[in-house]
Amino acid sequence: MLQVELVQMLHMLVFLFVVFMLTISFVHSFRPVSSFLGHADAKCRISTIVLYFRELSVVDYNCYHKFEIWRKYRFS
């Protein structure tokens, strides 16, 4: 019975560690934006972050579009 509780506690600790590391990496992924906006006002920050996400979505769309073109000509 004690072994089962120890294994469950170990699983919980591993889960918390993984969540912590993912949170740290997610926060650090925004470091270039936050350092770039260190001296700007709040309105500027919001608009620049929106532009940042728009650029990311455009890049994702372009990659997806290129993949669709490749798939169309590859399997036709």
Task: Furnish the topology, listing elements before pairings.
Blueprint: H1 2-29, H2 31-36, H3 42-74
Summed up:
This protein is mainly alpha-helical and 76 residues long.
Question: What does this 3D model show about the protein?
Answer:
The chain has two domains: 1-36; 39-76. It has helices at 2-29, 31-36, 42-74. By secondary structure, it is mostly helical.
Key structural traits:
single chain, 76 residues, mainly alpha, 0% strand
Q: What is the helix tally?
A: 3
Helix share of residues? over 70%
Shape: elongated
Which band does the percent of strand residues land in? under 5%
In total, the number of strands is 0
SSE string: HHH
Mean pLDDT: 67
Q: Tell me the span between the first and last alpha carbons.
A: 60 Å
Q: How is the biggest beta sheet arranged?
A: none
Radius of gyration: 21 Å
Structural class: mainly alpha
> Which consecutive residue ranges, at least 5 long each, have pLDDT under 50?
none
